[in-house]
Amino acid sequence: MKYSKKIPTVAFFLSIALTSYAQKKGALFSGAPGIVSYTYRDNFQKDVPATLDIIKSNGITDIEFSNLFKKTAAELRSLLDQRGLHCSSFGVGYDDLVNHTAEVAQNASALGASYVRVAGIPHQGAFTLEEARKAIEDFNRCGKILKEQYGLGFIYHNHGFEFQPYEKGTLYDLLIKETDPRYVSLELDILWAFFPGEDPAQLLSKYGSRYKALHLKDLRIGVTGDLSGGTSKENDVILGTGQINIPAVLKAARKAGVEHYYIEDESSKSLEQVPQSIAYLKSL
After folding, report:
1. CA separation for the pair 119, 279 (Å, rounded)
2. Are 267 and 233 in contact (CB under 8 A)?
3. In sequence order, what are the residues at sequence separation of 6 or more whose Cβ sits closer than 8 angstroms to the Cβ of residue 233?
């Protein structure tokens, strides 16, 4: 379908009108969301400066990086500074956190990040109690190092598999209960909470201030979840068009005091979908 050249102008003024209306009525989501670099991973691999310009053009200034894209942390920081952008969270793999803690901390500091984030825990098949306890030990130890030696916070990002039943709750509950809140905080990926059957708004209400950040995503209608921690990237859809109750999540997140709201769109349509997700947030 071909669109008239006038459509972007109409969409632009509609976005302004919706934002103005939301401000007058008391916006559920105020300000601009952040973005996860993985959303534009293919673009970043080709041209880092141009991709940062795309992000800025969407009115976004807050970025969570999970890759340096063949730059040094200092080089990437310079590109951010030139555009008035900033990195608030630096995502790394579990192995790097545990075995290269100092290097991770140095890169995070060079980027200007406040947090180091890990998404996922090594496991074979279904996530087990033994694997959870090993992660608890590693997170407490590394989180303490990051905090006391480098002034950085550590946040764990759920990926769906952690919700294996355990006692009267789940292994995710155990992770939260037995990690030290002084050194271990949380980032709630709302899709990877919803997919295994949890209510992300209820998790936010239950664990409150342990959550420092959110990954804002929505799951395609009709997709059935499980505890695998995996689904097609094309099941990431425009916020408000999927199965997740985004307004309920935002209300609970605001009450919990969440600091960072990152849009993450893993689909091949992220260039088109992210602006529509931003418009949706502004309309609430």
Report:
1. 27
2. yes
3. 266, 267, 268
What is the per-residue pLDDT across 15-53, written as a single tens digit (0 to 9) for each?
444 444 444 456 889 889 999 999 999 999 999 999 999
Handedness of CA 150, 185, 219, 120 (dihedral sign): positive
Angle between helices 129-150 and 101-111 (to 10 degrees): 50
Rounded CA separation 2/268 (Å): 20
Three-class DSSP category at 186: strand
* DSSP codes of every residue in 29-89: S-S--EEEGGGGHHHHHH-HHHHHHHHHHTT--EEEES--TTS-HHHHHHHHHHHT-EEEE
Q: Report how many helices (DSSP H) and strands (DSSP E) the chain contains, helices first.
A: 12, 10
Nearest to 122 by CA among 102, 145, 141, 138: 138
Is 28-283 CATH 3.20.20.150? Answer: yes
Tell me the domain boundaries of the chain.
Answer: 28-283
Q: Are 264 and 217 in contact (CB under 8 A)?
A: yes
pTM, two decimals, is: 0.90
Partnered with residue 172 across adjacent β-strands are none
